[in-house]
């Protein structure tokens, strides 16, 4: 027994020896540990092709020295990364650089905290509006340019601030960082970006059936409420689009909840079907909405009385706009507008009507209702913005963060739409009846709105990067399932006009490097130290003569042969 | 650039050992075998110390100075002395004078110590992009350690190999040997208890190693003198 114990212990020793040897091999194989001065999360500028032309930043990997805006004029920046905080941004400078295609190693923009969800909070920054506009302008510049070097966005924090201050100091002395003078090196080790294969757009629809009277064989009329939920911005990993169109999605969900409460009881179920649609592909001329509508049965499409599209209703004070494509004299439009105006008057909101004719030959679709109008369905878009946005503008970019959205605005918008719809459904137009009165059981729930808005403000929703079974899409589906009778998902492939590339976020390592000259000096010092040590030891142990004799060739050999 | 830095730190850490071997008469008398045997004995001692530390020591969460733990570490440190005794006395050496024996043993001892404690961090860390002064300081520490090991070996050989020593010097010899043997505990106390930074600790080590080397040299030459 003692023998087996002994051998067991011996085997244990052997095993630990093997593990020690294995560990040594692993250590030896380690090339570089992440021992950086700072490591921060960075988000890449979007890279996409539109109709064959390349846009955005075409590279992802970065391995260059850092430079700040205070670089000495005439310095060569083709192997340097410019770090530009948003507060010090000079947009003409960046525009010049990009338009004149000046060579640059890379760009890193530092965004203030207010644009991030975690740290944004309720900080009061006085130049909020200024920064927002500046960022919007920068975004539009970057999205429409073809940039042959990596461009990244990061949030300001203490680490990078100290690094930047150090870089500025070095630049001011006139010593920009290169291989021989030390400084900071920015390294992002990502593989080359690849195309996103067959990007999918997913439309989610929820159907709430109305009350069919016994013996009534006709199809009930339908009212559709639609909002697009995806975004497009300069940094896809940061495009949360709180206002465009997070506010619309939240409003739609709340309206669905309220009407599901009403429709759950057959006594209060209206004589209208309600169709809730969460569409994708919004920034791309509302491609998803078009495909969704095309997939409808002809009868269903004809039964739609009208559709209300919700877009950007999160940051208005007391004025909203209803955009239509049918002329305002049209009977249906008049009815809808009057319904909304009556409720708006009671709520102290001003509602204006904006008419814009659609041009079928022009592929540009500025607002969602135009897709309905192209298929001859009466529709209107409710929005706080009075002008029509350009392509890829106002689609929930970097500047559209939680800080700039006001839940009260959304709450009031929900009340306006729900009240107007309900009065139309139950035939109470013109009467002063408050169906969704505050404080009642059908009141609009601000907590619900806030929690969904918070979730949306933390979820980037650029359609090509949302897979079919993305957890967020599933969450939307589940929410609609709770509030409606029947939910369907439609998966389509995004039209071939757009091609997207992956690699949207990475980890940046900032290393403080010493220059080559430093190591050369060190080598010289060490060399002389070793020589001095050698001489000292020879002298003390063998004597000075021995040291001298080392340098003289022994003459004895010649004498001997002679 | 980074391999360059690794190369620089490597020659700072291991260069002096090679220089010592070639500069002194050790190379003439071909005492490499002794050094290698001493290095192996050091490895064995390190293993025994590791096992003892693992068995008796508790891992504390904070990096403070726990006197009881430090005392235990110091006691385990005396295993070092036992190892050195074994290397000096028990190993069979070729016919080399005592003068060279302790130098060879000390050299082998210090070289094994440098390789075991400093090679791995150097390989992993000095090749990275990030620059720190740590590896240069570590090299200086290796130099101090070389001097200390040779002094300890000298004192050890005085204690165990030389039978006729002047009586007055014996306590001094034992005292110096004690100080040199407890150097690791003293440096860890300075680092943890007093919170000295690494450069300061290395400076202290270099200074004391030179002082102890000088003292042990004097003691050794004092014992060489023919004794009446």
TrEMBL record, chain A:
Localisation per UniProt entry: Endoplasmic reticulum membrane
Q: Which InterPro entries match?
A: EF_Hand_1_Ca_BS (IPR018247), Nicalin (IPR016574)
The keyword Glycoprotein appears for this protein: yes
Q: How does it sit in the membrane?
A: Single-pass membrane protein
PROSITE patterns per the record?
Answer: EF_HAND_1, PROKAR_LIPOPROTEIN
Annotated TM spans: 520-544
Q: Which GO terms describe its biological process?
A: regulation of signal transduction
Q: Which UniProt keywords apply?
A: Endoplasmic reticulum, Glycoprotein, Membrane, Signal, Transmembrane, Transmembrane helix
For this record, the Gene Ontology CC terms, alphabetical, are: endoplasmic reticulum membrane
Family in the record: Belongs to the nicastrin family.
Protein name (Swiss-Prot/TrEMBL): Nicalin
* Annotated source species: Gossypium tomentosum (Hawaiian cotton)
From TrEMBL, chain B:
Q: Where in the cell is it found?
A: Cell membrane; Endoplasmic reticulum membrane
Keyword annotations? Cell membrane, Endoplasmic reticulum, Membrane, Transmembrane, Transmembrane helix
The transmembrane segments are 39-59, 71-92, 104-124, 144-161, 168-190, 202-220
- One GO cellular component term noted in the UniProt record for this chain: plasma membrane
Q: What is its main location?
A: membrane
Any coiled-coil regions, as ranges? none
Q: How does it sit in the membrane?
A: Multi-pass membrane protein
InterPro entries referenced in this protein's UniProt entry, alphabetically: TMEM147
Similarity field: Belongs to the TMEM147 family.
Q: What is this protein called?
A: BOS complex subunit TMEM147
What is the species listed in this Swiss-Prot or TrEMBL entry?
Gossypium lobatum
